[in-house]
Amino acid sequence: MTDSILSSLDRINAKYSMFRSMTSCTEMGESGFLFSAKDNLTSSDMETCCGSRILEGYHPAFDATAIAKMRDAGGKLIGKTNMDEFGFGTFSSNSAFGIPKNPFDLERSCGGSSGGSACAAAVIEDHVSLGVSTGGSICCPASFCGVYGIAPTYGRVSRYGLIDYGNSLDKIGLLSADPKKLSKYLPIISGKDEKDPTSCVQPDLKTEHRRIKSVAIPREATVGISKDVGSAFSDATEILKSMGIDVDYVDMPALKFAMPAYYILATSEASTNLARYVGMRYGQQDGDLSLKFDDYFTSFRSEYFGDEAKRRILLGTYTRMAGFRDRYYAKALKVRMYVIDAYKQIFADHDAVLTPTMPFVSPRFDDISEMSPVDVYKADYLTVPANLSGTPHLSVPCGYDGNGMPIGMQFVTDHWNEDYLLTMAEDWDRSFDVRRAEVVL
Amino acid sequence: MKIGLEIHVQLPTKSKMFCSCPTTDADAPNTHVCPTCLGMPGSRPVLNRRALEYGIMLAKMLNCTIAETTWFSRKTYFYPDMSKSVQITQYDNPVGEKGMYYLNGKTPIRITRIHLEEDPGKTKRVGDQSSLVDYNRSGIPLAEIVTEPDLKTPAEAREFLGQLIADIRHVIDLPGDGERSIRCDCNLSVGKERCEVKNVTGLKNVERALTFEMIRQTKVLKAGGKVERETRRFDEERGVTVSVRKKEMESDYGYIDEPDLGVYHIGKLSESITIGESPLKMTLRLSEEYDIDGKTAKQLVSTSMDLANLFERIAEASDAKTALTWTTGPIAANWKAFEQRCGDPSEIVKIVKRFKEGEITDTECSLELKSFMTGADPADIESSSADLDALIGEYLEQNPEVAEDARKNDKAANRIIGYVMKKTGGAYSSSDIVAATKKALNSEK
């Protein structure tokens, strides 16, 4: 079966555009399984360009630790998945290299920014894909494509080789249609890595199959969601109760502060991370060398960054400017602590916080083009808080709307408690009838 | 007039600040580099703990308040030699703040802060149209010491810097060519607005650059003009400062915390670090404790701190005056040879003690010291020293005006040295000749 997948990759990609680059090798060889990785994880044997023209042609000298660990475990990297440029987006529509198409409806988005990974997980049999979440980029596409997605605790998986969006927020996780693959591969990619100091403070990932016994649903998270999402979510809570899980409603006013704090921190960090792309040393380097260096840098960045990247560079540069730094950046750091606190208070009495993953099902591309940037940012309001607080979270398919589009719900547990989520995903898969998209090539 | 300095010291770590590339000189450009110091996407910094320790040592030396927690920040600016367009430096909570340094042990110079940062690479102009970039230096650890504008004159600034470098060299074991690893940004204001002269290397150049700036600003003000706040560069060959750019305000760098590195709790680490007495402090202490003049104390310490330590041991075994005579005389004269032989200084203490207790005469003492310190046969020394004495005696007798001069002025001995060197073909060291001359002059009295 795996050989037939390898030989049909071109055709799969022609239909769904989930890959930016793919292996040309059609033989499994010694490999035990296939996996794909988001195109912001460096791979020594495949171009890595983060959905950006500015990195077109970049062949990294080293493998990201997560990719290296998957390879060591016998994995064969089949492709680098399409994404919003540097992770800047919710629909994977901000890629310079085509937009991945939803397996349930090709006119709709896969979600983002790990849209290509979710698409691969939904379309390719027996597949697991490495995704990256900064503000919801694993759970959102998992929800839109009807698959499972887990973003572990910040620091659980080494970020060495992850091309940064917001370093204090970025987390590497997994997407798959099969929850057992999350349980199998999360321990493989986790662990301390001396090349990433933020991975070195973690306690061991224990897989003891601990079960979530109680969930808290913040009332704030049930406002502003579509009717279809609301009713699917409410049906899903009944299933949870039938599984013996207590479901409580709580107030969590901190949720509404997470969004502005997140965008300030993420864009502040992003604007410094993107400063290195000046057309020297790697990626595109074909600018006019007769220019003075700063004019060269400017012309290059103007030419090769996409609109959303430019918007976030401007936002992030503004929020860390003199006179604004305290008002925005420094305050956002405090809000982050406040949100973490709010979670901790709930975790004192509950094992998890539960919300829908996205407020609506995947929108059609023509509707997306009508949305303002702020409308798009707001769509992340349910996934952003867990990302801001660095707490692990999981999206599971929990229903389908009238058009058959998948709906997801999201569990958030306390730091380092991924075990609860992994068990939950497997239990849920036995209690709920998850649909697979029909793949006709 | 106000002068403040920002002094960049390269810290003598074996590997770079945030990666394991070596800090030694490379044979070719861009060979001591890796993804991290080249700023390749996906690479990450890992702090070299030794750099942090050096920072703490310097902060202690400068009597700074040492932070309980310290962390790094990102300073964003665009320049080809800055591989990430982001420099990892310290902004909030640097290693040390609010320090004090006493120039000549007296004049207080306030230290604003000391922080750690990485060095950028180097650009090299090639012809008119292009430059080359070498990233071998990218990521070398630096400590930046910032003073308050407490220095009054260019000469004072030079003196301060000289003392500071000597102290730094002692505290963190900088290599002998440490001066090239120290760069200085010089801020000077004659009126209200200040100018910064970037990247001046060497004590002499610091004084030259500041003097030029002082005169330039004075002229501008006298002509009724206004000094503009700007960054300038020192042209070593022409001895002038040249405007580079109008100064961006510090805050335009848009500092944020470096998210890839954590918060370092250095309270305990700092407690565990002790630093030795600095040369300056030792000079002042010796001068006070043993009642010797400042110049002699300084000479003793600057020859070698080990020699100064030996002086203290001899003083303990005998008395300060005896110790001083012998340490600055025959012991200093043979010190280099002794250091090369890695001898045991306790033996020296014993020899002088025997002299003090009257067991040996001063000629015998001198002979024994020289023999022990250089490893030469006493008989050879005796005969050659007798030859030298004879030669000098003869010369002084024939040139009474030189003898007269030499009594008043140490420099007159140069003529005697020249004479003996010529006569013997350099068989005697100049320190031996000076010692013999002194002996001859004293015996004449």
Give structural attributes.
heterodimer, A: about 450 residues, alpha/beta, eleven-stranded mixed sheet, 13 strands, about 35% helix, about 15% strand, B: about 450 residues, alpha+beta, three-stranded antiparallel sheet, about 20% strand, elongated
Structure characterization notes:
The complex is a heterodimer of chains A (441) and B (445). Chain A has 441 residues and is an alpha/beta fold. In chain A, 37% of the residues lie in helices and 16% in strands. Chain A has 14 helices and 13 strands. In chain A, helix 2 (65-72) links the parallel strand 2 (33-38) and strand 3. In chain A, helix 3 packs parallel to helix 4 (139-145), helix 5 runs antiparallel to helix 14 and helix 7 (255-273) packs across helix 9. In chain B, strand 8 and strand 9 (130-134) form a beta hairpin. Chain B is of the alpha+beta class and 445 residues long. Chain B is elongated and about 75 Å long. In chain B, the strands form four sheets. In chain B, strands 2-6-7-10-1-11-12-13-14 form a nine-stranded mixed β-sheet. A three-stranded antiparallel β-sheet of chain B has the order 5-4-15, with no helix packed on it. In chain B, strands 3-16 form a two-stranded antiparallel sheet. The mean pLDDT of chain B is 88. Chain B has helices at residues 49-61, 154-172, 203-222, 267-272, 279-289, 294-303, 305-317, 320-333, 335-341, 345-356, 362-374, 378-398, 400-408, 413-424, 430-444, and strands at 2-10, 65-66, 69-70, 73-76, 86-89, 96-103, 107-118, 122-126, 130-134, 141-147, 182-189, 195-201, 230-235, 240-246, 256-257, 264-265.
Assess the beta-strand content of chain B as a share of residues.
15-25%
Q: Looking at the structure, what is the overall shape of chain B?
A: elongated
- What is the total tally of β strands of chain A? 13
The number of helices of chain B is: 15
* Biggest beta-sheet profile of chain A: 11 strands, mixed
Unreliable spans of chain A: none
Overall body shape of chain A? globular
Helix content of chain B: 40-55%
Within the largest sheet of chain A, what's the order of strands? 1-3-2-6-8-7-12-13-11-9-10
Tell me the helix content of chain A.
Answer: 25-40%
Beta-strand percentage of chain A?
Answer: 15-25%
Provide the residue-averaged pLDDT of chain B.
88
Kindly report the spatial arrangement of strands forming the biggest sheet of chain B: 2-6-7-10-1-11-12-13-14
Uncertain stretches of chain B: none
Question: What's the tally of helices of chain A?
Answer: 14
* Assembly type: heterodimer
Q: Alpha-carbon distance between the termini of chain B?
A: 51 Å
